[in-house]
Design a protein that fits this description.
By secondary structure, this protein is α+β, with helices and mostly antiparallel strands. It has 2 domains: 2-80, no CATH class; 87-163, 2-Layer Sandwich (GMP Synthetase, Chain A, domain 3). The chain has helices at 2-29, 45-53, 56-80, 90-99, 130-149; strands spanning 87-88, 107-114, 117-125, 156-163. A hairpin with a 2-residue loop joins β2 and β3. α1 (2-29) runs antiparallel to α3 and α4 (90-99) runs antiparallel to α5 (130-149). The relative contact order is 0.10. It comes from Nonomuraea thailandensis.
C-alpha cells in the first residue's frame, strides 16, 4: 500500500499548488487581493503588451491547464480505487497464495467480490511455468476460492499477467 500513499501525497501537493494559483488568480481578477492596488502589475510591461495584442497564448495555457487538471483527476480516481469492480476479499487472496505457494515471484495477487461474480487478478514472473499456474488455477484453486467466498456456481474471471 506504500505506492498509494506516494500517489496521494503527490496529488495533494499538485492539488494544493493549483488551488493556490487559482485562488490568487481569482482574487486578482476580482480586485479582492488584500492590500494590493487593483492597478498593480502581475506581469512585466513587455509581456503584458504582447499578451494584450495577441491573446492566443493565454487560451493555449488555459487549455493545457484544463488537460492537466483532467489527468490529475483521473490519477486521483484510479488511486482511490474507483472504477474497480467489487470489494477486496482477504480470505480469498490468502487461499490463492496458499494454493500457489510453489510459484516464486507472485505479486499483485488479489480476489475481489463483485455483484456479477468473483474477479481474481494474478501477476507472475516470466520465469514461472505459466501452464502449471493455469492448470492449478483451473483444477482446484479457483473452486476452493469460490466455495470459501460464495458458492460453486459463482461466475469467476481470472486475469493472469506475466511480467517481463
Amino acid at each position: 500500500m506504500r505506492q498509494y500513499a506516494g500517489n496521494r501525497a503527490g496529488l495533494a501537493i499538485v492539488g494544493a499548488t493549483l488551488l493556490g494559483a487559482g485562488g490568487y488568480a481569482w482574487l486578482r481578477g476580482h480586485d479582492r487581493f488584500f492590500d494590493l492596488p487593483p492597478t498593480a502589475k502581475v506581469l512585466p510591461g513587455p509581456a503584458h503588451r504582447a499578451l494584450a495584442q495577441d491573446p492566443w497564448p493565454l487560451w493555449f495555457l488555459a487549455l493545457g491547464l484544463l488537460l492537466l487538471a483532467l489527468v490529475a483527476l483521473r490519477w486521483l480516481l484510479v488511486g482511490l480505487g474507483w472504477g474497480r469492480r467489487g470489494t477486496h476479499n482477504g480470505t480469498g487472496t490468502a487461499m490463492l497464495f496458499v494454493g500457489l505457494k510453489g510459484v516464486d515471484g507472485l505479486s499483485r495477487t488479489g480476489v475481489r467480490v463483485a455483484e456479477d461474480g468473483l474477479r481474481i487478478g494474478l501477476t507472475c514472473p516470466a520465469a514461472a511455468d505459466v501452464g502449471a499456474v493455469v492448470s492449478k488455477l483451473d483444477q482446484d484453486i479457483v473452486g476452493r476460492v469460490r466455495r470459501e467466498v460464495r458458492d460453486d456456481e459463482t461466475p469467476t474471471v481470472v486475469r493472469l499477467h506475466v511480467r517481463r
